[in-house]
Amino acid sequence: MANALRQGKISGQELQKMLSVEATTSDRVKGLLALGLPPDKLADAVGAKLSTLRNWSSGQAEPRADAAITLDDLRYVALLLLVDGEWPSDRVARWFTSRDFATGQRPLDQIAETPTDVIAAATDLIVAIRAAKTATPAASEGGSDTGSFEAVSG
User: Is residue 93 within 8 Å of 79, Cβ to Cβ?
Assistant: First the structure.
């Protein structure tokens, strides 16, 4: 399932449907896995065993309330980045599983404890993406683009 989107087995529109508010728990789990989130890390993030995650994915069981809330928070952040941020799914999965330089934590690990922080970080990221898309680089205006660092002479 993790490579389903990349391999063209499901479309971006199907993924959005799997992550929609109306989606079943089974579809939400499948959607998060289709993004490329590792099943073991997703299970850890929601406080479940891998076998339990498989049961949710197959529709054989439903998560307890706290796990269902965490799944919904993950679904919400994923949709923010996919739709509003216009990010490809593999970048969304990388963002969830990459460590923050300041805290050393991953958004996937933080979401159960501090979902509002993860949602705020995703929202800030989307704002930065939009700002970057609307900014005109100096190089295209005939200036030189030296980057954000200045040379230091010794």
Answer: no
Q: Is position 87 within any domain?
A: yes
Q: Is residue 154 a part of any domain in this protein?
A: no
Residues near 122 by beta carbon (within 8 Å), at least 6 away in sequence: 77, 80, 81, 85, 95, 107
The answer to the question of residue 2 being in a domain is: no
Write the single-letter amino acid at 23: A
Measured CA to CA, the distance from residue 30 to residue 42 in angstroms comes to 11
Contacts of 60 (CB under 8 A, 6+ apart): none
Amino acid identity at 72: D
How many domains would you assign to the chain? 1
Whole-angstrom distance, CA of residue 30 vs CA of residue 18: 7
| Dist CA 6 CA 122 (whole Å) | 22
What is the residue range of 97's domain?
Answer: 12-134
In tens, the pLDDT along 80-118 reads: 888 877 788 888 888 888 887 777 888 888 888 888 888
61 in any annotated domain: yes
